[in-house]
């Protein structure tokens, strides 16, 4: 990276949440009316023994580390009445919405989508493995988006619901950092939504990918938005609450 | 990454193009009727002195390295009558399609979208900086997709045209690896398109991000498709041509 | 309408199903591999006493007339293994996907979406009124699309599934002719899908609107496709089956 | 229609513009910040001798009657600084975005899209016939949406731009009432946009279709929004201006 890019990025600008490469949100406008938390794919299949990620042979620890910091954020944001969204990756039981290349790849790696496993059929809606993990169970009234892909906007009603709610800012947590969280962040960003990824509330199947996914956000002055950690987010939310009460 | 994931990924499966983590395309069905080359954002603003990337202070070399290998691929794929698509990132002159956070970030880093620069207004349609670089100029009949975002599907007619042509496979080249190329690959992949990124025909503003963008593709058995280099692609295309002639 | 338009439209062209303004499909390519039946919104709320349409004060007869001809088509198309899709209009129980103007209008007319009624909460997913009527109950393996709007493509996975199946032609039946059937036909047509509306398998809250919805299809040489009746459709399907067996 | 439906519809509710079946907009919130005028397809190909509609043999009078009332609306809405959008139906010169069935139908009726005609190649971008008619020429800074289909949202950046502007209400004029105006109204309505069609500012290739297109709007309490005429619209806009100045 050139010198001038680094210099610009290090200036303190933006909103109440200390973040990288700018303090978030860019326009300082952060409140329950315009900001939602999105908890991405914290499902048994991604986070628990016997699920899809476990069957592929990845270490589950990186998937489970975000649980506690997400709980901390949920507690505060629920209390402050920020809307909470959940997403679940999964396919129809007949697999009619499963692209054949996605199926083929999962079979190659020993975790065929739709095949039976310890948590039921892998990544299939209605199976035990497809549920959100009990540690992060959605409350009644929280919105669950079922998606067939990695992004949360494609083939779902997420955009409609965000528009109806007047949501302008998204706080993104969940797994995996570089796949579903990042794809959702990119697609939201293209729609003009202002996005914040909370690093310790996310995890990836490879630690290098996790770190690079964070760094990618900071290019071009925040090409997909910004990232922070849960401590800074909670501090920023607290400042916001106090200043408006 | 666990052992079993690595073992599965190293098995030789798939199509005529040697690639990582599987030989591409997965089903071996590669021909001009179902496969398109997509040249992403090889514009003056991204690849030439005085443009957007240069003004942000990044090294242009990584943007220009892909030019020659893309020329090699274009030569062969045009001769074999594969359809060629180009994308250009850019905004309407009135900036009505420019999200305010995207503008703010670009201003912060010293390269405000819509502001005047040595190549005209930055990232604005119709300006000199927005053109595809002359080294890779599209031929008459090649399709250009103008997009306001990082992904090539959002707010464009790309999906319609691909469907009308019966395209099932996309070969992706251009810049930057981790931003517009990757976002397009992710959005194409969610739609069931089978994608191949050609590593030496892409470049990023940060070499670590470039390498991580490649590695991310290989997770989960090829979560977004596969990647290769131009030498392997040309070898695979040649095999395909010979076997069908 | 001018003379020359009428003359052109009356020429016999197109596929095996006699239809207006051309015989369908335009390219003669009609088979279970590329053609799907879509049964639109034949739900208790639209077709049965106590439901949404009944509460608005419309005559249910027009909603129920299509039941028998749809049964006839289902019998034949299921036997020939054409894929069958169903759509259901309905909203999330928290009404997060219900535009406020849609709610306001429904309240004005005395049938507030989300309000309790004899068939449960009106147009809410999971309620008795939201089910497909038992006379046309989907079989296991038939695909149900839940949609928040009048069109079947917006905020749904219909396009993904049609693309995965290679569907090019849609045969449209259900209610109401001028609202959900027509909006779906228009949106499918814009995507290049070849559409046929089966007139006696549809119905509207106003007979004049029903007839005009048919006529609109015939403008500009078939601006949204073509329409026929169930007798002609069954004849065309039979010809197709015999010629390929 | 049943009695109760009619009774409800005739009650006076809603906003400052007298309309049918309710006064528009439903929530009374009408101002340049949240409301746009959309002038649909008032192109030479639809409205002038030698264009697409003329070649199909339809009477051009119905296409030209809306010109004067649209001019009246434009004058007032421009003065009050309401944003003005234009749409143009048209295809890429290589016809890559033209579905083959659409082409086939247009050829059948003697006005093949892409074929040469007195106004240039029919419905092709860049040709004389594709231009907006000079009587209604867009002013600099007014937004033009080029669309390949009948709806204005599919394969375009319209939704992005409306969201960036905070537009919630659309006032629709242009041609043809039952095809492009209605499809756009339906697709906007599904997205929660509050729509008003101005009847004398629209026209159809068949007068019966025009009238039915209006009536369809009024079903279900205003299933796609409401319709009015230019006199009532101007009166409502005037009331709005006076009450806020």
From TrEMBL, chains A, B, C, D:
Keywords: Hydrolase
Organism: Microbulbifer okhotskensis
Superkingdom field: Bacteria
Matches recorded under PANTHER family: FAMILY HYDROLASE, PUTATIVE (AFU_ORTHOLOGUE AFUA_2G08700)-RELATED (PTHR43540:SF9), PEROXYUREIDOACRYLATE/UREIDOACRYLATE AMIDOHYDROLASE-RELATED (PTHR43540)
Keyword Metal-binding: no
Descriptive protein name: Cysteine hydrolase
GO molecular function (one): hydrolase activity
Record InterPro entries: Isochorismatase-like_dom, Isochorismatase-like_hydrls, Isochorismatase-like_sf
């Amino acid at each position: 990276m050139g010198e001038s890019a680094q210099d610009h990025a290090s200036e303190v600008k933006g909103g109440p949440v200390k973040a990288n490469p700018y303090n978030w949100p860019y326009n300082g406008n952060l409140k329950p009316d315009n900001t939602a938390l999105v908890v991405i794919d914290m499902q048994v299949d991604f986070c628990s023994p016997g699920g899809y990620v476990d069957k592929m042979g990845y270490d589950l620890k990186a998937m489970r580390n975000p649980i506690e910091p997400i709980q901390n954020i949920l507690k505060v944001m629920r209390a402050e009445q920020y809307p909470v969204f959940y997403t679940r990756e999964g396919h129809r039981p007949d697999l009619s919405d499963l692209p054949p290349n996605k199926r083929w790849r999962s079979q190659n790696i020993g975790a065929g989508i739709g095949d039976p496993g310890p948590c039921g059929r892998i990544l299939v809606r209605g199976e035990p493995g497809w549920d959100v993990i009990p540690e992060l169970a959605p409350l009644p009234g929280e919105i669950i988006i079922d998606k067939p892909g990695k992004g949360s906007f494609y083939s779902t009603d997420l955009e409609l619901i965000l528009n109806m709610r007047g949501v302008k800012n998204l706080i993104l947590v969940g797994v995996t950092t570089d796949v579903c969280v990042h794809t959702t962040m990119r697609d939201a960003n293209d729609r003009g939504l202002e996005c914040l990824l909370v690093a310790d509330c996310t995890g990836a199947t490879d630690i290098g990918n996790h770190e690079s996914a964070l760094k990618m956000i900071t290019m071009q002055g925040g090409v997909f938005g910004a990232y922070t950690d849960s401590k800074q987010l909670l501090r920023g939310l607290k400042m916001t609450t106090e200043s408006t009460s």
